[in-house]
Amino acid sequence: MISPKLFALLLFFALALISFQLVSGIWLFIEKFGLLPSQVYVYFAGDEKNFIMPKSFEGLLETAVPHFLAISTTIFVYAHFLLFTEVISQNKKSLLISALFITAMIDIFSPLGIIYEHEIFAWTKVLAFWSFEFLMGILLFVLFQAVFYKGSKG
Amino acid sequence: MKFLVSKNIHTNANFRLLLGFYALMLLLYVIGDIFYLSHFFGSNTQEVLSTLKGNPDEFIEPLSLLSLLEHLHISLFLAIFALFSTMAVVLRMRLEHLHKGIIITISMASAFLSFLSLLGTYFIADLFVYGFVYLTLFWHLIAAYALSIVLIQIGFKKS
I want to staple B50 with a disulfide (CB 3.0 to 4.6 A). Which of A28, A126, B20, B55 is the partner? Predict the structure, then answer.
């Protein structure tokens, strides 16, 4: 029999660590690409005047493939705890889970559009990234709330 | 095709086999990570400082912020899942509640603080390097201890 208090303790630390991971992801995004869609576009599509080489398809795959595994695992592991809470309604849980996976996929796929010089995908990348981070923030907030105020069925 | 749906998996020999090999490979990860980190940053506080801040006497360039953030982002992810899954198994072991609570708190808190100390060393003061080195070593040791308990309990449990 698992003690609910020990389970809550473990979940609390796991949430604290993944929050840190979220912050490191945002920081890395800003440091690497910048804040503006134009900066994101230049990073991937390159800029001859400033001697910035465009990223290759293979280069993008090197980043995209591990992210498919890492992000899907993270969402799955953390979002499955939602099923054991009553902090938000079933519909909101469905919406949150779907939105997390969809924004993550758009975020990972967008650079492919950018390297073929479609600038609109730079906007898509920025919007999808910030939406994903915001939604992860909501997920973590709901789970923290469940740990501290509502408890969980598990 | 038929799956056997049972809650009584503790007595299942194959489940113990699965958990045993999983714990063994996680233990290899924990030990291997120490070697990787000592290779990447150095094996003592002075070497870690030289890697992070550079050392003109030895012609070592300081680590770029981008490299540091990439290391942090990947290592943190691996640490989270290694610790989270280890502690999820520890929760199910035959140990005192207090013992489990101490293992979970100390390992996860020291992992969290070790990553904060890494940033502290880079941005704030060299003093944080001690936190980074010793807390990193500490959470790896606690994780190895927890995984050893798992392996011992699985190994000696009667089927």
Answer: B55
Residues of B in contact with A21 (CB under 8 A): 73, 76-77, 80
Q: Which residues of B touch A10 (CB under 8 A)?
A: 84, 87-88, 91, 104, 108
Residue A92's φ and ψ, nearest 5 degrees, are: -70, -35
Nearest to B154 by CA among B30, B97, B146: B146
Q: Phi and psi at residue B124, in whole multiples of 5°? A: -105, -70
Cα distance between residue A16 and residue A139, in whole Å: 13
What is the residue type of B130?
Y
Torsion (CA) B148, B112, A80, A62 in degrees, nearest 10: -90
Contacts of B79 in chain A (CB under 8 A): 17
Contact criterion met (CB < 8 Å) for B72 and A2: no
- Would you list the DSSP string of B103-140? HHHHHHHHHHHHHHHHHHHHHT-TTHHHHHHHHHHHHH
Interhelix angle A90-115/A120-145, nearest 10 degrees: 150
Q: Is residue A12 a contact partner of residue A78, using CB atoms and an 8 Å limit?
A: no
Model ipTM value: 0.88
Predicted TM-score (pTM) of the model is 0.89
**Ranges of each domain in chain B:** 11-156
The beta-carbon neighbor of B91 closest among A6, A70, A74 is A6
Cβ atoms of B33 and B140 within 8 Å: the answer is: yes
pLDDT tens column, A44-69:
998 888 888 989 999 999 999 999 99
Share above pLDDT 90 across residues of chain B, in percent, rounded to a whole number: 75
* Nearest-5° Cα angle at B63, B61 to B65: 135
pLDDT digits (tens, 9 = 90+) for A121-134: 999 999 999 999 99
**Which residues of chain B neighbour A25 with C-beta distances below 8 Å?**
73
Q: Is A14 on the interface with B (CB under 8 A)?
A: yes
